[in-house]
């Protein structure tokens, strides 16, 4: 693409379309770094005391609403054995390799994505192939590279697909020549008076047809896009709204924007209280004499301060403390009111603070807190689902990038996968587990559906569980016990002493207490029939709702 057109697009996005958005994001960044200005409300000699609350508003939810066990699923195009085998291989590769490796990256890409959604109001994922990966020769690492760039350096077309893939993307930021030389060894920056450690301007342009890389005004790459699509995924926080003018600053909104004044008030009152208490704890002395008895010149040489120390004051001289009062109770109540307002944005349960008098009440509060971020989690799952599909397509498109585990699979254009990243909800999990077990016992669903949909297992884990259950049932059968018993007798040499018939092994009968528990409180057959009828179509108990 012509560089002048890229430059014109970049200038339009930076100076016009995203200008106000970037201003708001930089203001939020000052709050996140706890460097926002309070000089107009915290005056000398009070020292500004930072609390770090702004960072906790972003980092706290990101550490709790994303699971440590992401799962991937792939939808069948057709219900046949070939598709089932392909889906199993793809899901196993994603679950055991790709998703786990991405989780181990520094920083954790899942949590980093959520942090950008909360802080910037938007987040991006960039996918590319790994040039060091080659099937059959060098399969260390993954065939794809996943990055979560800072949205503040990404400028893209506002026209996007339903999956958040824009028409074109421009990345524009600063890099050191050392980093650029890793991918482009022949690059030589126009240093002039600058040092090699100084950064240079880096720009990328991606469209479905073309890609263009430039560093320090020098074109490094200008060729066809090898993927055939824009390898970027864009999602919003959902905290903004779209207006008729199409203003991006109304659509892209971080969670700190409408808490800035509250955070300023918290910093101001904390600073004032801290200064007052510190001054009281380290207060000085005021010494005053009367008209007839001035303060002696050597008074301070003889005056001592300490535990169990005493002083004899000269006649007419009085000593008082310079500060004799702590902050009023109303100031602490005001601080508590501010903290309460911030707790509505930052639920205490997400910081590990006990709430309520029972475990169930704690779980209900946690559930309520997690639901505040439902849109954030959904957008994150959609973004990584699209990104993993892009990764499979890149690996299938670029020569020798498809891992050995997937060699021979015909994707047939189906690169759609579903990624689950939502953290476990204790109350919801209990309800689903109970419902799944009841439906399975009533014969309304099969065991695999119970495992996958209600118990949280993958299809591969469900298959392994069913295999082990078959083995356990076989080993627990009387026939298996008989065979193992006869084999044991032969090994110990006791078979001849017991005769040709050997010994008959039977399962150990239940104890009287076990029989009583199994019998329950229902004594008659008609009673057992009635209880079975009442439980046959009974659904699961709905969780209590807070009022």
From TrEMBL:
Region spans: Disordered: 499-547
Protein name, per record: Portal protein
Organism per entry: viral metagenome
